[in-house]
């Protein structure tokens, strides 16, 4: 027994020791925890500042005149309102709903805390804080993202008491209402934003049902947003009205009458589904500020002065939402940018149809890797800049230059075709190449810019290479980060593509005398917290670069404005009399079904462009489909939307005419004429056909030289001429090359990709006088040219009847037009007269006899009488006189032929008459040539 008692005592002592140790440990833990908690709370409250309670206002976008047109908040407008602007009904509703003893406690309401504590104990955790309005303000300002903890709660209480001691109740309520959420999303932050969001009205004009609704959302903003949960919002609003009645703010009658008003009757249309006024332009401004300054207008309050033209932006918004334009289908998208031609200042942005705030834009794209904006392949829309302006700039070509629209073998044997199929035009003017948008000509010209050689192997200048071409495109403002330039870029085969903003910026270079200024929307930024002003536009103007020489810019502008003036179809729509230059473009999906997102797309149009400029504005319009719609098989069926929208923009911008004018022709240019298709340029001399003389603008260092007043022809190897069946037949050796005799426009054959193409070729100076012909001159024995004839073939019959005689027939080559001949070969041809020689006695008198003689050409006839002779070389009469009357005589007639042979024609016998009696014997016959 004693042993058991001793054991029990020992156990009790051991238990006491254990309890002491536990108590000691607990004491240490409590002390340590308290010290830690106290230190944590101290760190939280030591930096209390009244300024920290003030809500940052939204950044404000305004015009250059300072007129505000947009406030920047993440989905809404954050603007602080003063207590005096808040209607009493709103104050009563919030106090009744959130903190009925607000004007009585010191920022910490013990009954509310006790009630919340009992609820938390019953729930086994912190489920509510019993926070006063002051505590909620502190939480929003100091603990916006922290979980509820005892440490945080104690700090919140201490800071609330401190805030109450340093501010008035009115100030606290004002700060609170400017900072708290009133619904789902950031567009409801602050009373000002919420009033706009739900009712589209100013805070001062809030009514009882509206105030009760707003106060009701504060308990659970997401849950009681009427645009998300209308029934719950109605129920909550009515509960707030009951609380207002209970606390004596409204009468029972007012309460019931207000409950009878449906919440939906107080709301405007759901703002979540629509963007704000000028949203597309506002988002461009916000993104531009973020990327160029590093400041975020959502985080850093600022006043942003912009170049928006609200009239222009309204027009673009009207087009985008279908009010002023009827699109060809509901899915087609559109993007457009309008900027001033000489400043780079963007005045209007069309980001897309059904555009949502900070959504995908088809007008521009990020330059810093941010994920927004869709780039698209430009098709032919950049040909003027990439191919021809570059040729003016780097090869010193003239606007009178002829380019080669001949097939070009691209990569892996691929030969791009023109839009009309495998049809090429040979040598053509740059204006023809551009206005008709021939692909092959652009490829060949860009190849010349890069390589310095043309398709015929001729040197045309110093090529700039791929690196030079890339730098050139960068100088025009194009983002080449993910690009790899090759010849195909001339016709739109870019890896990533371009945007309307980048096209507008590049084309403004032409309108602006070659000067590039980066497109931008912002004039300057004023940071509201410090007053610092950042001069954005001033920097852009200072950073402008000369992307093209004044001469090159003037030359490409001259061509573009001229073909718009004289153009038909699309360009006719832009011919408003304001020197507008423009270029269309279309890109196509691959014809290989395995290479497209949907087999339906194969070979069809993908993008449609039209970029244009005037002395005042430059604008670019794109239409096409989103990537998702392309997967569904949507493709461009017509460029109608692009063309019509661009024309609408042109007419709207210039409805009052133009304010500016282009710069005058630079002193480095001269106007001159040259022979078409010949390079280096040659002046036209005498005899050059008018259709081979072209005029244009030339850089002073590359004007026409020499004079094409003659041209060499191949030697004539042989020529024959002979009479056959009384006709003169001639034969030439055939001219080589034979093609020069077949057409006035010489040709050349190109073999590319296994195919052969014979196309007009003007590059041979020996062909400037048109086609080669065969010439024949006939000269008689006296040296007189009696006939000349041109033959189109190497042999033929002369269309001229030669009289009997000997002639010199000369053959040679000549141009159909112009001077110059080949060597000449002459042949002698004798023509025999087939008319028979004859004589007829006309009369006999007592002392004379007269004969009529017919003499064939080339011969002579001699009459002999008693040793006396008379001869004739042509038809005529012979008279023998001083004869004796009544005497018989014999007259012998002899013909001498052309070859000298003689032929006796016959003898005529007659007797003279008796004296004074004339004798005529009419029976004497005519003697023909035997």
TrEMBL record:
Transmembrane segments annotated in the record for this chain: 21-42
Q: Protease among the record's keywords?
A: yes
- Glycosyl transferase family domain residues are 78-244
**Where is the stretch described as Disordered?**
910-930
Q: Name one Pfam family in it.
A: Transpeptidase
Where is the Penicillin-binding protein transpeptidase domain positioned along the sequence?
A: 335-632
Q: Which GO terms describe its cellular component?
A: outer membrane-bounded periplasmic space
Q: Name one GO biological process term.
A: cell wall organization
- Reactions accelerated catalytically: Preferential cleavage: (Ac)2-L-Lys-D-Ala-|-D-Ala. Also transpeptidation of peptidyl-alanyl moieties that are N-acyl substituents of D-alanine; [GlcNAc-(1->4)-Mur2Ac(oyl-L-Ala-gamma-D-Glu-L-Lys-D-Ala-D-Ala)](n)-di-trans,octa-cis-undecaprenyl diphosphate + beta-D-GlcNAc-(1->4)-Mur2Ac(oyl-L-Ala-gamma-D-Glu-L-Lys-D-Ala-D-Ala)-di-trans,octa-cis-undecaprenyl diphosphate = [GlcNAc-(1->4)-Mur2Ac(oyl-L-Ala-gamma-D-Glu-L-Lys-D-Ala-D-Ala)](n+1)-di-trans,octa-cis-undecaprenyl diphosphate + di-trans,octa-cis-undecaprenyl diphosphate + H(+)
Q: Which GO terms describe its molecular function?
A: penicillin binding; peptidoglycan glycosyltransferase activity; serine-type D-Ala-D-Ala carboxypeptidase activity
Keywords carried by this UniProt record: Carboxypeptidase, Cell shape, Cell wall biogenesis/degradation, Glycosyltransferase, Hydrolase, Membrane, Multifunctional enzyme, Peptidoglycan synthesis, Protease, Transferase, Transmembrane, Transmembrane helix
- UniProt xrefs under Gene3D superfamilies: Biosynthetic peptidoglycan transglycosylase-like, DD-peptidase/beta-lactamase superfamily
- Biased composition (Low complexity) is annotated at 917-930
Q: What family does the Swiss-Prot or TrEMBL record give for this protein?
A: In the C-terminal section; belongs to the transpeptidase family.
Protein's UniProt name: Uncharacterized protein
What is the protein's species of origin?
Answer: Massilimicrobiota timonensis
Organism placement in taxonomy: Bacteria, Bacillati, Bacillota, Erysipelotrichia, Erysipelotrichales
């Amino acid at each position: 027994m004693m042993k058991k008692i001793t054991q029990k005592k020992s156990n009790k002592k051991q238990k006491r020791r254990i309890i002491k140790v536990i108590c000691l440990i607990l004491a240490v833990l409590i002390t340590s925890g308290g010290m830690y908690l106290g230190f944590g709370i101290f760190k939280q409250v030591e930096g209390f500042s009244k300024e920290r309670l003030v809500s940052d206002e939204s950044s404000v976008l305004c015009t250059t005149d300072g007129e505000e047109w947009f406030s920047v908040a993440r989905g809404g407008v954050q603007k602080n309102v003063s207590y005096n602007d808040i209607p009493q009904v709103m104050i009563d509703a919030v106090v009744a709903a959130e903190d009925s003893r607000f004007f009585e406690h010191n920022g910490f309401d013990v009954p509310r805390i006790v009630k919340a504590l009992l609820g938390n104990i019953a729930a086994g955790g912190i489920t509510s804080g019993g926070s006063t309005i002051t505590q909620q303000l502190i939480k929003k300002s100091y603990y916006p993202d922290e979980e509820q903890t005892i440490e945080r709660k104690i700090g919140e209480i201490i800071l609330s008491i401190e805030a109450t001691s340093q501010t008035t109740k009115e100030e606290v309520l004002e700060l609170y209402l400017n900072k708290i959420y009133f619904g789902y999303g950031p567009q409801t932050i602050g009373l000002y934003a919420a009033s706009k969001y739900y009712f589209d009205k100013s805070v001062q004009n809030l009514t009882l049902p509206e105030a009760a609704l707003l106060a009701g959302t504060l308990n659970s903003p997401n849950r009681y947003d009427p645009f998300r949960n209308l029934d719950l919002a109605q129920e909550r609003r009515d509960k707030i009205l009951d609380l207002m009645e209970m606390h004596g703010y409204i009468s029972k009658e007012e309460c019931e009458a207000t409950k009878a008003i449906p919440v939906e009757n107080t709301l405007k249309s759901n703002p979540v589904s629509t963007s704000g006024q000028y949203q597309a332009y506002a988002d461009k401004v916000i993104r531009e500020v973020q990327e160029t300054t590093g400041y975020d207008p959502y985080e850093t309050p600022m006043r942003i002065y912009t170049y928006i033209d609200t009239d222009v932006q309204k027009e673009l918004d009207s087009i985008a939402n279908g009010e002023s334009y009827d699109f060809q289908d509901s899915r087609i998208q559109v993007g457009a940018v309008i900027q001033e031609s000489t400043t780079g200042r963007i005045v209007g942005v069309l980001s897309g149809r059904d555009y949502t705030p900070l959504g995908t834009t088809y007008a521009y794209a990020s330059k810093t890797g941010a994920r927004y904006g869709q780039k698209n392949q430009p098709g032919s829309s950049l040909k003027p800049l990439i191919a021809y302006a570059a040729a003016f700039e780097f090869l010193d070509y003239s606007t009178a230059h002829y380019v080669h629209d001949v097939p070009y073998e691209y990569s892996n044997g691929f030969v791009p075709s023109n839009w009309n199929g495998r049809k090429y035009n040979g040598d053509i003017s740059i204006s023809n190449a551009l206005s008709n948008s021939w692909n092959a000509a652009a490829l060949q010209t860009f190849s010349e810019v890069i390589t310095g050689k043309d398709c015929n192997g001729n040197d045309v200048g110093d090529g700039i290479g791929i690196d030079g071409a890339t730098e050139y495109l960068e100088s025009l403002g194009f983002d080449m980060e993910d690009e790899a330039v090759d010849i195909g870029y001339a016709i739109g085969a870019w890896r990533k593509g371009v945007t309307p903003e980048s096209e507008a910026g590049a084309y403004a270079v032409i309108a602006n005398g070659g000067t590039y200024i980066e497109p931008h929307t912002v004039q300057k930024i004023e940071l509201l917290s410090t007053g610092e002003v950042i001069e954005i536009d001033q920097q852009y103007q200072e950073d402008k670069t000369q992307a093209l020489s004044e001469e090159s810019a003037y030359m490409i502008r001259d061509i573009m404005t001229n073909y718009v003036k004289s153009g038909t179809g699309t360009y006719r729509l832009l011919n408003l009399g304001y020197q507008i230059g423009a270029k269309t473009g279309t890109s196509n999906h691959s014809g290989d079904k395995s290479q497209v997102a949907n087999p339906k797309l194969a070979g069809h149009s993908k993008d449609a462009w039209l970029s244009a400029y005037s002395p005042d504005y430059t604008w670019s319009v794109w239409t096409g489909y989103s990537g998702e719609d392309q997967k569904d098989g949507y493709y461009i069926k017509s460029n109608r939307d692009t063309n019509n929208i661009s024309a609408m923009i042109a007419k709207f911008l210039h409805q009052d005419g133009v304010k500016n004018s282009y710069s005058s022709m630079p002193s480095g240019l001269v106007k001159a004429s040259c022979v078409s298709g010949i390079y280096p340029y040659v002046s036209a001399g005498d005899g050059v056909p008018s259709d081979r003389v072209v005029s244009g603008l030339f850089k002073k260092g590359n004007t026409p030289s020499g004079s094409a007043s003659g041209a060499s022809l191949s030697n004539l190897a042989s020529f024959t001429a002979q009479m056959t069946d009384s006709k003169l037949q001639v034969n030439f050796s055939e001219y080589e090359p034979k093609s020069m005799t077949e057409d006035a426009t010489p040709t050349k054959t190109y073999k590319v990709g296994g195919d052969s193409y014979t196309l007009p070729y003007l590059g041979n100076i020996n062909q400037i006088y048109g086609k080669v012909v065969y010439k024949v001159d006939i000269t008689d024995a006296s040296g007189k040219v009696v006939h000349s004839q041109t033959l189109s073939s190497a042999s033929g019959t002369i269309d001229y009847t030669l009289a009997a005689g000997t002639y010199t027939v000369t053959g040679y080559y000549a141009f159909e037009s112009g001077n110059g001949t080949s060597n000449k070969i002459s042949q002698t041809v004798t023509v025999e007269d087939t008319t028979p020689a004859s004589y007829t006695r006309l009369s006999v008198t007592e002392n004379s006899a007269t004969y009529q003689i017919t003499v064939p050409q080339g011969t002579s006839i001699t009459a002999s009488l008693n040793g006396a002779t008379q001869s004739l070389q042509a038809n005529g009469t012979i008279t023998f006189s001083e004869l004796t009357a009544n005497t018989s005589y014999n007259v012998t007639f002899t013909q001498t032929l052309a070859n000298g042979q003689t032929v006796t024609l016959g003898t005529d016998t007659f007797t003279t008459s008796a004296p004074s009696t004339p004798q005529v014997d009419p029976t004497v016959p005519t003697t023909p040539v035997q």
